[in-house]
Design brief:
Blueprint: E1 3-8, H1 11-22, E2 29-35, E3 49-55, H2 84-99, E4 104-112, E5 115-122, H3 126-130, H4 135-149, E6 159-164, H5 167-189, E7 193-195, H6 200-209, E8 216-221, E9 228-233
Parallel strand pairs: 5-6
Antiparallel strand pairs: 1-3, 2-3, 4-5, 7-9, 8-9
Length: 241
């Protein structure tokens, strides 16, 4: 059975490279995630993701196709007037990006009681603004939210969410893919699969993605920043035909 192991900055990049090497499509292979990308000290010296991609056996019963999830569309900016918090958050972020030397345009895409959402449009390297596992984006969000909310009375303060070219939507789809692939690996091997180097938000996405899968369970273990997710098959041994 032909297979290839491939490394990449992320699981999805490693899988794409392996598919290109084998000259096949995703539905023609089984994917085993050998290692997830991990972040190192201060976001450097991390390790890459590694996958094993194996061609499905000829004549094997095909797995039922999984309907592809729609790709997230680019957020649409608001056209009407915005609140003081939304305006100050957008202007503050624009100033920070200018100081960083990044040509980008922050746009308010949501402004309601739940909070303010701002998407950044840019042709620059998005990785500079996102960082490994979104760490830089999270830091920018924290700074902007704290500074923009500071002049407001406590009852008027709201959440401020930042995004970069719709990154959050794409990352969520990638995490769901990782969750389902890891669950399939746990079912085939009959052994738990461990996912690490995830933020609290990303762990929640994994838990929700597998909440309806009756063949596996998910749980979190450890303390941040070393907290991990364990995906376990309900049956310790996979069934044999």
């Amino acid at each position: 059975m032909e297979s290839v192991e491939q490394a990449g900055r992320t699981v999805e990049e490693a899988v794409a490279a392996a598919l290109k090497t084998l000259a096949v499509t995703r539905d023609q292979v089984n994917v085993d995630i050998l290692a997830h990308e991990s972040r190192g000290l201060l976001g450097i010296l991390g390790s890459p993701a590694r996958v094993r991609v194996t061609l499905k056996q000829a004549g094997a019963a095909p797995s039922p196709p999984t309907p592809p999830e729609p790709a997230p569309s680019q957020p649409t900016p608001l056209t009407g007037p915005t609140s003081d918090l939304a305006t100050s958050s957008r202007d503050l972020l624009a100033h920070i990006l200018s100081l960083m030397g990044v040509e980008a345009t922050p746009e308010v895409i949501s402004d309601d009681e739940a909070g303010v959402e701002i998407n950044v449009r840019t042709e620059a390297d998005m990785g500079l603004l996102i960082g490994r596992h979104g760490q830089t984006l999270a830091a920018l969000q924290l700074i902007v939210a704290m500074m923009a909310n500071r002049p407001l009375p406590p009852e008027d303060r709201r959440r401020v969410i930042l995004d970069i070219e719709g990154y959050r939507g794409r990352r969520e789809l990638a995490l769901r893919d990782i969750a389902h692939n890891s669950a399939e690996r746990a079912k085939r091997s009959g052994r738990p699969v461990r996912l690490d180097s995830l933020t609290a938000r990303e762990r929640r996405i994994i838990h929700l993605a597998l909440a309806e899968d009756s063949d596996v369970t998910t749980r979190s273990e450890g303390e941040d920043p070393e907290r991990v997710i364990i995906i376990s098959p309900r049956s310790p041994r996979p069934g044999r035909e």
